């Protein structure tokens, strides 16, 4: 168990450094621009800056995702033909054969119905790194330690920083600061995250799966994703520090805006 924890920590260390370097850079820049270094909004905007950097780096991934969605649309006639051939055949053998032929079509056209999840998966290590940074503030501050590229002074500032009366390191489950302020802010951001995730999945499905049989395996998978991802964010949100919720709220707003712009294109 100890070895696996050490391996995970070693894997995450570069991501913690990247997260802390970007945040420290934005924090210093905002401080030079006149914002108080210890103010919660300075650190909040540093987290927003982290989102912008990561999402900007992911733009090529998003463009590849858009191309995959376009190929999915072009694939629809063949998928509908396949569904028509297997219509009414609900035995396990037929279902398996249909699923295999669908996967063969996806491979042939170089697309995947789950391509929309790729940016989310790529962001996961950075999200975990931010979670670890925020979770480590309370321990590092009294020990006189820094975290990654954040020196001890910045750790002390970050640990005491908050917005709307809620510390950025506090969470709905583990508390910290004013419980009412933390609860209101956390719930508000969780609701925004859930809404953004739901609307994004709806836009993706409407763009890539138009004309699909509502009882097809692919549509069932998309319906699961439509409700599963918001549920994961909703449940996970009670564990996340406010700072992590800021990250995911801004990131989900970015994703929704991107997908909305793409959905308006022919």
From TrEMBL:
Q: Which UniProt keywords apply?
A: Cell membrane, Chaperone, Membrane, Protein transport, Transmembrane, Transmembrane helix, Transport
Task: Please tell me whether the keyword Protein transport is annotated for this protein.
Answer: yes
Lineage of origin: Bacteria, Bacillati, Actinomycetota, Actinomycetes, Micrococcales
Q: Which InterPro entries match?
A: YidC/ALB3/OXA1/COX18, YidC/Oxa/ALB_C, YidC_ALB_C
| Species for this entry | Pseudarthrobacter niigatensis
* Family membership: Belongs to the OXA1/ALB3/YidC family. Type 1 subfamily.
Q: What is this protein called?
A: Membrane protein insertase YidC
Membrane-protein topology: Multi-pass membrane protein
Q: Does the keyword Secreted apply?
A: no
Q: What does this protein do?
A: Required for the insertion and/or proper folding and/or complex formation of integral membrane proteins into the membrane. Involved in integration of membrane proteins that insert both dependently and independently of the Sec translocase complex, as well as at least some lipoproteins. Aids folding of multispanning membrane proteins.
């Amino acid at each position: 168990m100890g070895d696996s924890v050490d391996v995970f920590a070693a894997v995450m260390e570069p991501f913690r450094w990247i997260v802390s370097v970007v945040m420290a850079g934005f924090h210093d820049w905002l401080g030079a621009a006149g914002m108080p270094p210890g103010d919660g909004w300075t650190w909040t905007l540093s987290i927003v800056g982290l989102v912008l950097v990561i999402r900007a780096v992911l733009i090529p991934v998003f463009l590849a995702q858009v191309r995959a969605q376009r190929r999915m649309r072009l694939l629809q006639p063949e998928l509908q033909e396949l569904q028509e051939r297997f219509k009414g055949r609900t035995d396990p053998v037929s279902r398996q054969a249909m699923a295999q032929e669908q996967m063969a079509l996806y491979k042939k056209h170089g697309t995947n119905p789950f391509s929309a999840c790729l940016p989310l998966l790529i962001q996961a290590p950075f999200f975990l790194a931010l979670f670890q940074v925020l979770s480590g503030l309370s321990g590092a501050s009294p020990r006189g330690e820094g975290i990654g590229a954040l020196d001890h002074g910045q750790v002390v500032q970050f640990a005491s920083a908050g917005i709307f009366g809620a510390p950025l390191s506090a969470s709905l489950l583990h508390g910290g600061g004013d419980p009412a302020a933390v609860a209101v802010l956390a719930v508000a951001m969780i609701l925004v995250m859930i809404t953004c995730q739901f609307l994004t999945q709806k836009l993706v499905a409407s763009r890539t799966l138009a004309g699909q049989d509502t009882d097809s395996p692919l549509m069932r998978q998309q319906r699961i994703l439509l409700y599963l991802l918001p549920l994961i964010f909703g449940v996970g949100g009670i564990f996340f520090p406010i700072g992590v919720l800021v990250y995911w709220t801004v990131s989900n707003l970015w994703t929704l805006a991107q997908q909305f712009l793409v959905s308006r294109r022919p």
